[in-house]
Write a structure and sequence with these properties.
elongated; mainly alpha; single chain
Length: 128
C-alpha cells in the first residue's frame, strides 16, 4: 500500500496527540476513551500489534506527581492548610490531569511505534 504521506516525526507526534492514524492521518486511533481501535477506518492499518503497556503511564506519573507534589509543598509552606484541604485540592487535580493526558501520551506512543516499527508489521519502516 503506497500513496500515503511521509510524515515527519513531529507530524507523527501531533497525529498521536490528536488520536489519528499514523499512516493516513485521518482515521481514529481509539475506539472509546483508551481502547485502541482494531483497524483504521480510512486506510485499514491494523493496530493490533501496537501495545503501549505501561509506556505512557510511567512518564505521566513522574510528571504529574512532580508537579502536584511541588504545588502541595508550596501551598503547605505558604499557608499551612489543614490536611483535608490538601485532599480536596490534590486528589481531583491528580485524577483530572491524569484522565486528560493519558490518551494523548498513549496516542503518541502508538504513533511512534508505527513510525519506528517496534511491531511485527510487514509494511516498510516509516509507515510508507
Amino acid at each position: 500500500m503506497t500513496g500515503y504521506p511521509a510524515f515527519t516525526t513531529g507530524q507523527i507526534i501531533r497525529l498521536g496527540i490528536r488520536g489519528r492514524c499514523p499512516r493516513c492521518g485521518h482515521g481514529k486511533l481509539f475506539h472509546g476513551y483508551l481502547k485502541v481501535a482494531d483497524r483504521c477506518s480510512v486506510c485499514d492499518l491494523d493496530f493490533s500489534g501496537h501495545d503501549t503497556g505501561d509506556g505512557p503511564v510511567v512518564p505521566l506519573m513522574l510528571l504529574i506527581g512532580g508537579i502536584i507534589v511541588g504545588l502541595a509543598l508550596w501551598l503547605e509552606l505558604r499557608i499551612e492548610p489543614p490536611l483535608w484541604l490538601h485532599a480536596v485540592i490534590w486528589l481531583p487535580a491528580v485524577t483530572l490531569s491524569t484522565l486528560a493526558t493519558l490518551p494523548l501520551l498513549k496516542g503518541v506512543n502508538i504513533a511512534l511505534q508505527h513510525r519506528y516499527r517496534s511491531t511485527e508489521e510487514e509494511t516498510p519502516l516509516g509507515g510508507t
